[in-house]
Amino acid sequence: MATTTLIVLPFAGALLVALLPLPRNATAWLAFLISLVEVARWIVAAAQYDFDKGGLQLSASTEWVQSLGISYSVGFYGFSIWLVGVSVIVSAAAIGWALWVGRERPRAYYALMLGLTGAVVATFVAQDLLLFYVAFEAMLIPLYVLVGVWGGERRSTATLTFVVYTMIGSLLMLAAVVAFGVTQGTFSLVDSGTSDNTWIFLGFAAAFAIKAPLFPFHGWLPLAYREAPIEVTAVLSGIVSKTAVFGFIRIALPKFPGPVHDLRGLILVLSGAGLVYGSVLAFRTFDLRGIVAYSSLAQMGLITLGIFASNDLGLDGAVLQSVNHALISASMFLLVGMVERRTGTGDIPALGGMARGRPILATVLLVAGMVALAVPGSATFAGEFLIMAGAYGQGWGYAVVVALGVVLAAMYVLRLISAVLHERRGPSVREEARDLRVGELALVLPLVACLLVLSFWPALVSESSFAGDRASAVVSQGFR
Amino acid sequence: MIASTIPTPHVDWFALSPSLSLLAASGLCLFVAVLLPEWLRKAFAATIAFAGFATAGGFAIALFNHSQTAQTLLSDSMSRDRLAAFTQLILAATGAVVVFVGWGDRRRGNAGEYYALLTAAVAGMAFFVSAENLMTLFLGLEWFSLCLYVLCALDTDRAASLEAGLKYVIIGSFGSAVLLFGSALVYGATGKLGFAQIAAANASNDSFLVAGLAMILAGLMFKISAAPFHMWTPDVYQGAPTSVTAFMSAATKTAAFVLLVRLLNTAFPKESDIWTIALAVIACISLAWGNLAALAQRDVKRLLAYSSISQAGFMLIGVETATSRGTEALLYYLVVYSALSVGAFAVVAARERELGAPVTLESLAGFGWERPVYGSALWLFMLGFAGFPLTGGLFGKFFVFSAAYDAGDWWLVIVGVVATMVSLAYYLNVIRWMYMRTAPAPRVVVVGGAPPREWALGLAVAGCAVVTVGTFFVVQPILDLASDAAAALPF
């Protein structure tokens, strides 16, 4: 029940918001309230979950299509508790941001945002392949409209590329789901066995690689992240990309041990390439959104590296880093949004010198940036260190690539910070542009606070994701 | 008495009841058309037609419950089984919804005829789907086709409608002629008309039989509008009155598809190695041609027509498997497809009545925001066609693909998946026009503000939307019914 309410609540909320003829502000507040209730509901669920025991908990299952072995079955593992946690938190922050800035056509907008939240949560708890596919695909519908209606000038092209890329992935996955489920006789992730079919594995891998996105499947990323409303970008890069992480950990690794073994080298190389390539692009690009967007590409490469290292350290690190990245990317995008609202632009040459007279903005951006560049002692440092150690298990070369990525991260984050806060005052920065307001702080501070908590206690996530230190055993045994 | 000396076959009136009740309704509608004053005709005829569809649906349910074992009637010319009953139920439901869609049509003096033809067409289809020999097959085919020809041309004051009717007559008759010729060849090869007897005649190697089978297939492909037998579809769907298009696109396909599986699996099971390949090829051509041509359409009815061609391709994959699983998938798909198709055309009808002009993509600009209910309904139907979650369309595609994979045709799954990718371009384009474009210029608004609310059309759209979403959540019960129906065929 606990899990089902977590899925149903946002969808029911979306219907409510869409149907109630409330005034603009009331609609926004109602949506924000629903998203906060969802966070509260998650806290209750996390408290109920027994992390020492691990395994599938809070599960529910109802037959859906008996004759094909499809069921509505949901449940939590340790790592999915954390993925759902950041999802609901980031969604609440995003909806709060929309409430703060105000969006046209509020009933449709908030309904879609809540629907998106519900679909993401459903993806993370799905224990049936078809349910997973349904949720994975259902994310696309609200995203399509959110970018296409409320996006920037080139939203039309952005939605088109985004949809084309993701649908190619999704439909390949559908073919793979059909093939896997029909061969196994069941679509349940818990009951089904493993498969040695490389083609089926590639169907899944393509969908996840596009959704993450991983190099070289990231063609949709720059436009979509730039043209979407900033809070949608935060959701997109923060949590929607993590559905790929879930897919890799829950489906690709345990169900396809053979193909994973055969293709591990290729995937690791591509992930490493994405890490370096994304970092370099982030260092070279000339707008704030671009920097955060490409850094997401780099971070997803890093996380995938950890996953496909397939050892305890790598998997624990990948989950920790997923949680970190969701929080960082959401807070960075929201901070970028706050800067853009004050200056009307995100172009680096037009910015600068915003620290003077705006101490709160400077402090928050600096703290978030420090965490983002993995300063020792931060949660991201812990995550990246774990991944590096895990990657070392597959070869020292991968560890060197990760180290390179960490150095590059420092470069692009520092560039962003100095471009916004320091240097000469940019032409678009007006003297009277205000410091962060209370409302904005209330949105971004909880995210940064979560990061700081994780910085002091990264083991909260990394030790509990797979019931102690047995990550690779748990994954290779199919979470049994 | 003479009657006692001539042996007459026992007539199972109950098995014929869906057709008969609709024929009765049709006759009553014709009486209405001549006996009642004009202002009363529409209301009376529509009520009678709806009652007829409800009765036929009720009879179909009863037949389904009382026909566990398939039996043949009237000297083996008809069959009474669950497959026929299940299809008759879909057809009756489609007809009932179309009564609501057609209610708002501006008919000058032919409302009675409209409903009479509608009920007569469904009566013919109900007869057609239970055909068990080549003669009754042809009879049923012509019965409902003639009604459809007239229905298409019913808007006599619109040239496009007349043109549609004429095109449909010419190409439809050609299709019928091909089918009849094929039947003759099969009869020549086997000396039998009954489906089961044809199968028992063991004439697999006879080239007449194979040629006849090919021609019968071609004739039926005209009716399900699969490429390359689809030439009439875009023109007729575009020109016919929109409520008629809604009806045709759903009901004709349903009837023709069910008869296709029945015929192929009862009369030609031994030739399955031939016709499965033929159907796979036709499915691929339909998917390719329907989707690619739909990309280029601006007129929404034309776009939906090409979409229906590609949907026929998906359903053909189900037939092609020649398994009970494929047939279940087909029947499930037909339920969803009927709802989607009637619903989508109903929304087009709403927009058409509002504008008084054919609906193009441009004239959908801003529609989603202006008419939130119709807009979200059309959105839902487009997602359903494309096979997105939260619509039964997902399961339709899913079942067809899994049946094909199960039968070893993994390559058809790939073709279907690629076709779905292409189809997204135009389905999502409709959504894009509705929500992401604004109307180019202020339109001339009818004096008196917004057009009156059409509760009947709204109900029809709501009904289709409920089926579309309902078939996503309630899958197993429908699948059980479909598998009971498919059990009537010898697999």
Side by side, the strands of the main sheet of chain A go: 1-2
Shape of chain A: globular
Order of helical and strand elements of chain A: HHEEHHHHHHHHHHHHHHHHHH
Q: Please tell me what the overall shape of chain B is.
A: globular
Mean pLDDT of chain A, to the nearest integer, reads 91
Run of helices and strands of chain B: HHHEEHHHHHHHHHHHHHHHHH
Q: Give the beta-strand count of chain A.
A: 2
* Number of helical stretches of at least 4 residues of chain A: 20
Please, could you describe this protein's structure?
The complex is a heterodimer of chains A (480) and B (491). With 480 residues, chain A is mainly alpha-helical. Chain A has a domain at 265-464. Chain A is 73% helix and 3% strand. Chain A has a two-stranded antiparallel sheet. In chain A, strand 1 (57-65) and strand 2 form a beta hairpin. In chain A, helix 13 (288-309) runs antiparallel to helix 17 (396-421). Chain A starts with a helix and ends with a helix. The relative contact order of chain A is 0.10. Chain B has 491 residues and is mainly α. Chain B has one domain (12-444, 451-486). A two-stranded antiparallel sheet of chain B has the order 1-2. In chain B, a hairpin with a 4-residue loop joins strand 1 (71-73) and strand 2. Chain B is globular and about 65 Å long. The mean pLDDT of chain B is 89. The chains are: A mainly alpha (480), B mainly alpha (491). Chains A and B meet through strand 1, helix 5, helix 6 and helix 7 of A and helix 17, helix 18 and helix 20 of B.
